[in-house]
Specification:
It is built from two helices and eleven strands. The longest helix has 17 residues. The protein is 18% helix and 38% strand. Helix 1 packs antiparallel against helix 2. Strands 1, 2, 3, 4, 5, 6, 7, 8 and 9 form a nine-stranded mixed beta sheet that branches. It has a two-stranded antiparallel ribbon with strand order 10-11.
Length: 182
């Protein structure tokens, strides 16, 4: 009989299709212009069905993929934006802001979490949701998403930036301001 303080068996390391050797994490990298943001975060990807998990400290967001790195050259995770669903941005009163959701690929479902330990969570979340929405629709307005990423990067660097308003497809341009101060 196990007592309340006995240890659980160690979780297995996450496997395919999510886990990717760190050296191969960017092998399928799309056009460098499609890279959006890079943030230091505490991340975790968990496959509860297989009792497997993977964790790390850095996230790379592009127009098609969320790449998660461990910084130690081990195994990272690669999550296509089209496989993500039930994503949420949480701002708890006590604790760090975080993004969380599920991803399904090749019949495997994982729960993923990105916990932001420093500034930039809201800006990352804004760009992340735009990229996920664009990936789902199949029509990527890359220029608008990249402009959001540049503004988010500048906001995290605590600089003042003037960004041009980008018209949304089908929206009348007369309704848009010419510039927005951050």
């Amino acid at each position: 009989m196990a007592s309340w303080f006995s240890r659980k068996p160690p979780a297995q390391q996450l496997g395919p299709p999510w886990a990717v050797p760190e050296a191969q994490l960017f092998d399928d990298d799309e056009d460098p212009a499609a890279r959006l943001l890079r943030r230091r975060v505490r991340w975790e990807v968990v496959d509860e069905a297989r009792n497997a998990r993977l964790a790390g400290q850095e996230a790379f967001l592009s127009l098609a993929v969320l790449r998660l790195s461990t910084l130690d050259g081990g195994v990272g995770a690669r999550i296509p934006l089209t496989s993500i669903h039930r994503e949420e941005y949480m701002q708890p009163i006590f604790g760090a802001n975080y993004l969380t959701g599920l991803a399904v690929q090749d019949g495997a479902t994982v729960r993923w979490t990105l916990e932001f330990l420093s500034a930039g969570a809201a800006q990352f979340a804004s760009v992340f949701f735009r990229a996920v929405r664009a990936a789902r629709s199949g029509t990527t307005n890359a220029a608008a998403i990249q402009a959001s990423a540049r503004v988010a990067s500048a906001a995290e660097a605590e600089t003042c930036v003037w960004a041009e308003a980008v018209p949304v497809d089908g929206a009348p341009s007369a309704d848009l301001p010419t510039a927005t101060a951050l």
